[in-house]
Amino acid sequence: IGISQPGHPDEWKILDAACQAQIETGLPLCIHPYMGESSRMAPEVARFILARGVDPSRVNLCHMDGHMDLDYQRRILDMGMWISFDTYGLEIVFGEAPDHNHTAPDVLRQKHLLALLDLGYGDQLLLSQDVCLKLQLQAYGGYGYSHLLENIFPALERRGVEKAVLDGILIDNPRRYLTIA
């Protein structure tokens, strides 16, 4: 479910319906809060979801690597929700700065990911690439679909992240999040 900044009343209605569906089905709930540079709406979205009785362990706030702000990320994690660093390899600028300049370089994503791992949040992190543009494909100069496996995970291992932690992020976390409760 996506939501704009500010959220349109119809978007909040749809999010409310998605919360009801999550409770009834046990399926995971994946939210894409607006990720422009001026937006910090993920905590508001998270509070809205929790107020409707959704189990926070069934919620993933996506694009949380659009804001390289540990306090912002930790606010969601401390509510018991998952966060996704899901734009690895997307190192471009959309629109005009500052509002749409939200794609951090992978090196900054890595720095924040390592900090979150050091703080003990490894079991609430999901990583992916959100390949959605032609320029992200290898044929057009991008990293392609294998970027996490070929570049990111080996770089994390070189930085001292243990294989068990990497397996947790790559295998165990998606399995736990995607399991129907």
What is the fold's blueprint, element by element?
Layout lengths: L1 E2 L5 H17 L3 E5 L8 H10 L7 E3 L8 H8 L4 E4 L20 H13 L6 E3 L19 H12 L4 H16 L3
Parallel strand pairs: 1-2, 2-3, 3-4, 4-5
Labels describing this entry:
alpha/beta; five-stranded parallel sheet; 5 strands; 9% strand; 181 residues; 6 helices
Structure description:
The chain is of the alpha/beta class. Helix content is 42%, strand content 9%. The chain has 6 helices and 5 strands; from the N terminus they run E-H-E-H-E-H-E-H-E-H-H. It has helices at 9-25, 42-51, 70-77, 106-118, 147-158, 163-178; strands spanning 2-3, 29-33, 59-61, 82-85, 125-127. Strands 1-2-3-4-5 form a 5-stranded parallel beta sheet. The protein is globular and about 45 Å long. The two termini are 19 Å apart. The relative contact order is 0.12. The model has no long low-confidence stretch (mean pLDDT 88).
Number of strands: 5
| Morphology | globular
Number of helices: 6
What is the rounded distance between the termini?
19 Å
Compressed to H and E, one letter per element, the order equals EHEHEHEHEHH
**Unreliable stretches, pLDDT < 50, 5 or more residues?**
none
Average pLDDT score:
88
